[in-house]
């Protein structure tokens, strides 16, 4: 297996563990990601779509499904009524915090077979990758529909 294959399979391991965590909260991974993305402050729908690599239409459909569960809400921006802001409801915020706690507890399990030094290296490298990734703007990859 080459490096690309290893990264592919690492993403599968992470996605599978994340899906298991989300299922424990009766959420799809997309719904959990959405409420976690807006848990601390409202976000513009257009910016959120770009950050999540989704089309605006796909995000709107995800928001509709998640709003029916009363986990997120839409509102017009106070500065520009054409801009739609998305925020977590109080219930959504509590659920997002619980998801984050579970992720912090269970996602590191993917490195459980590494020795202590390798676990620290894995954490350092994962942190460096995330810290140097621009998660606030669109990627060059096409948006995906969940």
From TrEMBL:
GO terms for molecular function: DNA-binding transcription factor activity. InterPro entries: HTH_MarR-typ, MarR/SlyA-like, WH-like_DNA-bd_sf, WH_DNA-bd_sf. One of its GO terms (biological process) is response to stress. It comes from the Bacteria. Pfam families: MarR_2. Residues 1-131 form the HTH marR-type domain. Transmembrane segments: none annotated. This is Transcriptional regulator. It comes from Streptomyces aurantiacus.
